[in-house]
Amino acid sequence: MNKTMVLYPGIAVSHFLPMMQLADELVAHGYAVTVALIDPAVHQQIAFAATVDRVVSSKKHAIRFHMLPRVELPPATSTDDGDGDFFLLGYLDLVRRHNACVHDFLRSMPPRGVHALIVDSLSVEALDVAERLDVPGYAFHTGNAGAFAVYLQLPSIRGEGDPSFRELGDTPLELPGLPPMPASHLFAELLEDPESKVYKATMDVSRKNSRYSNGFLVNTFESLEPRVANALRGSRGHRRRGPALPMPPFYYVGPLVEKAGERGERDERRHECLTWLDGQPDRSVVFLCFGSTGAGNHSAEQLREIAVGLENSGHRFLWVVRAPIVSDDPEKPYDLRAEPDLDALLPAGFLERTGRRGTVVKLWVPQVDVLHHRATGAFVTHCGWNSVMEGVVAGVPMLCWPLYAEQKMNKVLMAAEMGIAVEMIGWQQGLVAAEEVEGKVRLVMESEAGGELRARVTAHKEAAAAARADGGSSRAAFAEFLSDADNRQFTRTSS
């Protein structure tokens, strides 16, 4: 009988998809995989529910999916911290309320039948459940090692009486293995009052990752982040049941990204944007896309600035546009399927004037396929780590436009450490002007500096392929993780 790995993914598209790539790797190595799911309908995120449906449908013959029972939830306002309703508090509360369901599910499996439990790094409290059941537990971080290193070190950075991260503003934080990281670039939850619920919850999750996990799987590869990998290898962790023990081991197993043409039922009819790209010269098109959650939707004013900048740049473009968010009512979740009115949002005559060299697509394109197309020459991205990894694997230089979560930290690492991107500065003032859009597009597409970006990202593309190949660093790290899980299982069964 195959050894069974239980995966407990996060409840967001950017957390869920990489873990499904990890599931594929485990299946390829001969493990049985069961995925425990929180009912997507509970979270009221349309994009997430649609993604889960697609993945379950395409992988159900190779992977077992188990929907956890729904639990009673409090009114949405119960997570209000005095400064608004924070996504993180609701997320953590939802996961916490499902811990009893995870406990019952693990107990329902055959004795010693769970080889290991792998949870999303935001669902780390479930590892306490695994520990009580004597099941080896690991955390999977879907972002990069650098941002995760910042996150894990936060409790030791700020002592009692020190200025808050919000008070530090743009003061750079000096952390082992990382370039100077402005305090203002941390997660938004950490820029709140240190006495607030959301700040304390964020710090608590950071501590629990080190306390509960037997190891961290990270969606990166070592040569992309060598300094932080070396720093973490020799770091000391927080206190775990008494004396200080080494930080749990890190396994850099990436890049775990979807392959071109790997989107199941969508492959049955080729997207029209790919046909349009077929008619464009090699490396001539600037691709603009800002994630799948809806949090990356730009204002009408910002859309107009982008349009003017693209038109004035003179370059070909493929631009994915979503309608601006007009309601913050938590009882009415934003519908990602709401089509934008391009005639109303974009400058008069823009579509007609640029129709020969540009195309605007509503809502969605097969991003991986676009990035791998020979015509794509640059990628304007919100710096979500999945998108960054997809850009690296495709060998496309990037323009950074961070919007939320850890994306500002990713931007620093991409531009200052990895050398694969340039930054759109205007995001810091809340509006990237048309002049900057035009100038940065020209820089990447025309200048010597843009050529150097391309050379570096091409080198990282080759390194990514080598890391995942036989004898590569990621392949070796994955084997090391499996060996550790096997050894822990042997210890359990022989005790």
TrEMBL record:
Gene Ontology MF terms in the entry: UDP-glucosyltransferase activity
EC number: 2.4.1.-
PANTHER family: GLYCOSYLTRANSFERASE (PTHR48048), OS01G0869400 PROTEIN (PTHR48048:SF92)
Name of the molecule in the record: Glycosyltransferase
Family designation: Belongs to the UDP-glycosyltransferase family.
One Pfam match: UDPGT
Metal-binding is among the record's keywords: no
Keyword line: Glycosyltransferase, Transferase
Classification via InterPro entries: UDP-glycosyltransf_plant, UDP_glucos_trans, UDP_glycos_trans_CS
Top-level taxon in the UniProt lineage: Eukaryota
